[in-house]
Amino acid sequence: MSPTFDAFIGFYPTTDLAATHDFYVGTLGLTLARDQRTCHIYAVAGGGFLGFCERGSVALPPSVVLTLVTEDVDGVYERLVAAGVAAEAAPKHNAEYGIYHFYAQGPSGERVEVQRFYK
Questions:
Q1: Which H or E run contains 20?
Q2: Which stretches make up the VOC domain (predicted)?
Q3: CB atoms within 10 A of CB 41
Q4: Whether 68 contacts 27, CB under 8 Å
Q5: Which of 28, 54, 73, 91 gives 20 to 30 Å between its CA and that of 118?
């Protein structure tokens, strides 16, 4: 019998948990689901979670991407740029993957993608 899973958590390192909290709650609007002192877990729609744990150093390769899906890609882009968040480029269409998206940089250098699927 296959196990039944209720949610997914992806954990990532951060060098500054307070800045990470400000970014994911204050700028992106996620909700803190669990405060485990040195780790914070944020709720994402659909039963998913992003977890960040304080570490002395962070070395995520650029191939590691935290992707958030929304219909309001342009609105999120504008909010991030207004908050001074570095974006790689303005949102654009990607026909190969059938998405509209952009990449930004999180507080610990993590690559954050915001996208929507073509309908």
A1: helix 17-21
A2: 4-117
A3: 18
A4: no
A5: 28
Q: For every one of its 119 residues, what pLDDT tens digit does the chain have, with 9 covering 90 and above? A: 778 888 899 999 999 999 999 999 999 999 999 999 999 999 998 889 999 999 988 888 888 999 999 999 999 999 999 999 999 999 999 999 999 999 999 998 899 999 999 87
HSE of 46 in the Cβ direction (CA atoms, 13 Å)?
7
Sorted by where each starts, the structural domains of the chain and their CATH numbers stand as 8-54+64-117 (3.10.180.10)
Q: Which residues, in sequence order, are CB contacts of 31 under 8 Å at separation 6+?
A: 25, 42, 43
Q: Looking up tokens 């026909």, which residue turns up?
A: 95
Q: Using alpha carbons, select from 3, 4, 24, 29 the residue that is nearest to residue 12.
A: 24
Structure tokens at 34: 């669990």
| Contact present, 52 and 14 (Cβ < 8 Å) | yes
Q: In a 10 Å sphere around its CB, with 0-12 CB exposed, 13-18 middle and 19+ buried, how is residue 25 labelled?
A: middle
